[in-house]
Design a protein that fits this description.
alpha+beta, single chain, eight-stranded antiparallel beta barrel, Alpha-Beta Plaits
Amino acid sequence: MICILTVVRYPKWLGWAGFLSMAIFRLPLWLNKKITFWKLMGSGRNGTFDMRPDWRQWAVITVWGLRVGINGYEKTCELSAFTPNFLNSWWKFFHCEVWTLALEPIEGHGTWDGQQCFGNLPKQTDYDGLIGILTRATIRISKLNSFWKNVDSVANQMGLADGFITSLGIGEVPFIKQATFSIWESKSHMKQFAYQMQEHAEVIRKTRKEDWYSEEMFVRFKILDSAGTNRGISPLERKL
């Protein structure tokens, strides 16, 4: 299958249109029978879990029931073809900056709203190239204080880690249903940060010991294609 992540940034003073789109987009996404799973999300100001929303930036994840060919993903069409026309027209009308990624889920575990929306994935493969990481969780109400007290230290360290390219903080429900999507030069670089950096290892330990999440998901993606920019930058330029 192919997953499409689209990050949209509205011009200054037009963030209200992004907020409105979270209600309006539900119908065209629901009506598109080629899409097997979708989520509309807001963004935090930093590139990870963040309590402060960025009212100009919004995100859409769609999962398409398409097979990736034996020879890999073929760039035979514009990535916008994987987005319902109504969404593309809306973003064009409001002069939005759009960054779209085509992703192939390759490893992972967990569920999203009770679904294995990216399929039944192995926990490990031998792939070690350019990689995208989705980490999402539904935080228990009783654990919100502990969670938010601990995430800032990890966010500050991630941007300095070897092999880190960029990250986005996205979420369905403020404070409670949160996710990050980060991109790394390789899986080895990501693992070095995740398991060897003291602050991150400590947060992982607390997550398990204190049972912060009622639901969680961790998925690794092979990055197939990238189009557009975010904040005027093409993060994967000359990397694909």
